[in-house]
Each structure stands twice: as structure tokens, then as C-alpha cells.
Design goal:
The complex is a heterodimer of chains A (145) and B (356). With 145 residues, chain A is mainly alpha-helical. Chain A is 70% helix and 0% strand. Chain A contains five helices and no strands. In chain A, helix 1 packs antiparallel against helix 2, helix 2 crosses helix 3 and helix 2 packs antiparallel against helix 4. Chain B has 356 residues and is an alpha+beta fold. Chain B folds into two domains: 116 residues, Phosphorylase Kinase, domain 1, CATH 3.30.200; 228 residues, Aminoglycoside phosphotransferase (APH), C-terminal lobe (Aminoglycoside 3'-phosphotransferase, Chain: A, domain 2). Chain B is built from ten helices and 13 strands. Chain B has a five-stranded antiparallel sheet, sandwiched between helices. In chain B, strands 6-10 form a two-stranded antiparallel sheet. A two-stranded parallel ribbon of chain B has the order 7-11. Classes of the chains: A mainly alpha (145), B alpha+beta (356). Chains A and B meet through helix 2, helix 3 and helix 4 of A and helix 6 and helix 10 of B.
Chain lengths: 145, 356
């Protein structure tokens, strides 16, 4: 049940598509689509490996920032955390989306871009973007579409 | 299920039923080859080689069929608008393929889906010498750059009111307001399509609004995506400008900021012989319109918002369709959207460096 795990399964699928299926494809459009599919599978493999940790870090940062400024800036209530101790990926993503929405509203409510809250918000936003780089940039190593 | 566009009998029947659109003396038409092109992924593009029959015999007529994917389009502009751009440019100095008709009769359209037909102009999008840094290629690279800038100037000199583009696109309230109104419109569109609020979008739009240019010289017809890969070239000339999906009315800097690869920086013996300053000067000499490098930078930054909006449009289709969403839509909403977000983060960061 535990092995092969999802990472090995996706990696094997990528290898099969590249080594067995791709050489047999003759249609240009199909070939291009196949290359895109393989790239997305590569990305998914890395995402499976690291996304939950990234989401947990992002939620913690967003929550800390919003809680720190909530009273002083009279911001809306900070969205509640996921109820489970080990939330599923979907629950974590839902929590992150709620926190991001709260942050976007807070940014619009504080128009001075030099306000310490806005400066801190940009740092959080930048780190959130950087965290996704492993599966959205580094994983795309094969031939392009 | 295979598209009916792959069935030569279906396509022949369709073309023949519309033969009066293929030319004034056309008495019959048939398709001899159909191929789906892999370039131009925002919509389906099909190359159709037709043969039409007239009083003087038969002749070949290369056609292109454009239609949305079954899932819609990647770009949040509608197919009919794209067709209308071609139709409205028919009698202007802008080189475009002749638009023949918009097919919205499900009874005759292949797969029952709307699409439009235009002539396919002979030529190539590919200019392999552009990336060749051999000094022997300098003159050719610079000449191609000039030709492209002149084509953009021709677009910008179109009398858009006479051609009816004011009925197709939002009209900025003034040249000075063009930038900020476009920013507001695209931000609203992106937010509606994203399905969740985006802090990086909020920060970037705040930075862009703070430095939105107000010195546009005029409101002009803008093409949007342009440059290498977007126009058809033959014998050193542009014979057709393609891909009008991001067309709008606005500051000419919007277009200059979207030029792809057509303004190479060429330095010889420590002296720049071609680059953006020379390109802008040449553009102004042909259009009479001044585009500053500052406006160019702003519109390049704005492009990240435009990009996020069209990625969000794809993402909305993926949410709607689930497992049946086309892979191109998934890829756009995934990898391309991330690159847009990275650019937005850089735009947001520039606000801080500009104030500290």
C-alpha cells in the first residue's frame, strides 16, 4: 500500500510517456500536448512532495501578520484555522485562500504603501511566491511545448 | 470525438454553402486539406486548403478558421470581437488577412460551433536572423525592426472612430486617463475571474496606480500582443498582422511595451547602433506620437496584470469543467499564472524601492 508512493507513480508515468509514447507520436499537435502533459506531471510530482509544508508556512505567516495588525488597523476578523490537526491539502488550501483574501482586503484598506503593515505584507507576498518556485519553475525541466 | 473540421466532406459542404463569401464569381468550393495548427493556443486555428471553381476554372484558396475551444478561449475577449477587428481593418493601411465571414449558424458550422473564416496569407512568422548576433546580420535585423515599428505606427494612425472601433472597445475618457482606466478595468476583470482575492495583485495594482502615466499623446487603436511570432512576413515585409486578442483603445505605449523580440539591442565597438532609444525615435518619426521609456516601463509592468487576467480566465474554465478542461487551459492557469504573479511581486517590490 505504501510503495510505490505517489512520487514514484508520477515519476514512472513521466518516464513511460517520454520514452515509450512520445517517440510513437507523429501528429504535431498531439506531440505538443504530450510535452505539456509531461511538464505538468513533473510539476505535480514536486508539488506533492513540498506543497503541504509550503501551505503550512504561508498560513502561519499570513495569520501572524493579520493578527498583529488586526486591532490597530481595525481589520476584519482573521479567518479561523483548519479544524483538524493534520488537515488535508484541500483544507489547507482553503485556509490559505481565506487568509489571502483577508490580506488583500487589508492592503486595499491601508492606502499608504510605506505603512509598516504594507511593507510587511509585501514581504509575506514575496515569500509566498518564492515558496512555489520548486514546482512552478524548477520542476519544468523537460522539452517545452 | 474527432472534430468535423477533420472531415473533408463536411468542410467542403460548408464552404460550398458559403461560396458567395469566398469571392464574387465563385461557383463552387471544396476543401482538399485541413490541419489544426499548434501555434495560437488561445483559440483553435485551423489551416484549410480550399479549391474554388469559377467561370475561368479552379484556383487554390488558402483559408484559416478560428474558433473557440469547446471550453471557450484562453483570453477573455470574445471571438466575434476578434473577427470584427479584422473586418474593420480591411480598408485601412494595416496589413491583415481578409476576413470572409463569421459563421454562427449551428446548422452548417462544423461541430455546430461558431467560428470565422479568413484568408490565409502566404508567408512566415519566423525570422531566424533576429537572434543571430553576427555583425553581418545587423542591417537585416535593424531593417526588420524598422518595418515592424512602421506597421505599429500604421495601426496607431487608424481613424478608429471612422472604422467603428469605439463600438467594439471601451473608449478612455481622455489620453491622460487611458492608463489608470485600463488598470482599473483589467484589475476588476482579473479579480472577478480569479475566484479569490489576491494580495500580490492588490499590492502591484497599488504600485501601478501610484505611478500611472498621464502623458499619453493620444488615444489610438492598439494591437496588443505583437512582434516576432505574431505577424506574417514575406520578402522582408509584413504582409499580415495577426493575433488581435488583446487589442484595445489606449496609449500607443501599450503596444510598444508588448513588442516581442523585434527591438534587438546591437552594440558594435562600444557604440549602440540599435536599441530602444533608436526604435522609439523611428516610431515617432513615422507616427508623430511620442512614447517615453518611462511609459514603456509602466505598460510592461501592467502586462503582468493583463497576463494574470487571461490566466484567471483559463482557471475559471478549469474550475467549471473539472477533468474535461483542456490541458492548455490547465497549463495557462498554472505555470503562466505563476509567472504573472512573480512579475506582480516584482512590481510591488519596486514600490518600496522607489520610496526608500
Amino acid at each position: 500500500m505504501m510503495h510505490p508512493g505517489p512520487l514514484e507513480v508520477v515519476a514512472a508515468a513521466v518516464t513511460a510517456l517520454e520514452d515509450v509514447v512520445a517517440p510513437a507520436v507523429r501528429d504535431e499537435h498531439a506531440e505538443s500536448t504530450l510535452r505539456t502533459a509531461v511538464q505538468l506531471l513533473r510539476s505535480t510530482r514536486v508539488r506533492l512532495e513540498v506543497e503541504q509544508q509550503a501551505l503550512a508556512e504561508e498560513c502561519a505567516e499570513l495569520r501572524a501578520l493579520l493578527e498583529l495588525w488586526q486591532v490597530r488597523l481595525a481589520l476584519a476578523a482573521v479567518p479561523a484555522p483548519a479544524a483538524l490537526r493534520y488537515p488535508a491539502r484541500a483544507e489547507q488550501a482553503h485556509e490559505a485562500a481565506a487568509l489571502r483574501s483577508a490580506l488583500a482586503a487589508a492592503i486595499d484598506a491601508v492606502p499608504d504603501p510605506d505603512h509598516p503593515f504594507r511593507v510587511a505584507a509585501r514581504d509575506v507576498v514575496q515569500r509566498s511566491v518564492d515558496r512555489q518556485q520548486p514546482w512552478l519553475v524548477d520542476a519544468f525541466t523537460g522539452p517545452r511545448r | 470525438m474527432a472534430s468535423q473540421l477533420l472531415d473533408l466532406d463536411v468542410v467542403s459542404g460548408w464552404l460550398d454553402s458559403r461560396r458567395e463569401r469566398l469571392g464574387p464569381r465563385v461557383q463552387g468550393a471544396r476543401a482538399v486539406r485541413v490541419e489544426q495548427l499548434s501555434r495560437g493556443v488561445s483559440r483553435e486555428t485551423w489551416a484549410v486548403d480550399a479549391v474554388v471553381r469559377g467561370p475561368d476554372g479552379e484556383r487554390e484558396l488558402p483559408l484559416a478558421v478560428r474558433r473557440d475551444h469547446p471550453a471557450g478561449s484562453v483570453i477573455p475577449s470574445d471571438l466575434r470581437t476578434e473577427y470584427e477587428v479584422y473586418a474593420r481593418l480591411a480598408d485601412t493601411a494595416v496589413p491583415v488577412a481578409r476576413a470572409l465571414w463569421f459563421e454562427d449558424d449551428a446548422a452548417v458550422a462544423p461541430d455546430g460551433r461558431p467560428g470565422y473564416v479568413r484568408e490565409r496569407v502566404r508567408g512566415s512568422w519566423h525570422l531566424p536572423f533576429l537572434s543571430d548576433d553576427d555583425p553581418a546580420r545587423d542591417d537585416r535585423r535593424i531593417e526588420a525592426s524598422r518595418v515592424h515599428l512602421e506597421a505599429l505606427a500604421a495601426v496607431h494612425l487608424v481613424d478608429w472612430r471612422t472604422c467603428g472601433f469605439d463600438r467594439l472597445f471601451p473608449v478612455p475618457s481622455s489620453p491622460a486617463a487611458a492608463a489608470v482606466e485600463l488598470l482599473e478595468r483589467v484589475r476588476r476583470q482579473a479579480e472577478e475571474l480569479l475566484g479569490e482575492a489576491s494580495p500580490v495583485l492588490a499590492e502591484a495594482c497599488s504600485a501601478l496606480a501610484a505611478r500611472a502615466p498621464r502623458d499619453a499623446p493620444a488615444v489610438v487603436l492598439c494591437k496588443g500582443t505583437n512582434g516576432h511570432g505574431e505577424e506574417v512576413w514575406r520578402d522582408g515585409r509584413i504582409v499580415a498582422m495577426s493575433d488581435w486578442e488583446l487589442a484595445c483603445l489606449g496609449d500607443p505605449a501599450y503596444d510598444l511595451a508588448q513588442v516581442q523580440e523585434m527591438v534587438p539591442t546591437i552594440v558594435r565597438d562600444g557604440r549602440r547602433v540599435w536599441g530602444w532609444p533608436e526604435a522609439l525615435e523611428h516610431y515617432t518619426s513615422r507616427s508623430g506620437l511620442v512614447v517615453t521609456e518611462e511609459r514603456l516601463r509602466w505598460y510592461r509592468d501592467l502586462y503582468a496584470v493583463l497576463q494574470l487576467a487571461y490566466c484567471a480566465h483559463s482557471g475559471a474554465a478549469v474550475r467549471r469543467l473539472g477533468a474535461t478542461a483542456p490541458l492548455r487551459f490547465v497549463w495557462t492557469a498554472y505555470e503562466v499564472a505563476y509567472h504573472a504573479e512573480r512579475k506582480l511581486a516584482a512590481v510591488a517590490a519596486s514600490a518600496r524601492s522607489a520610496t526608500t
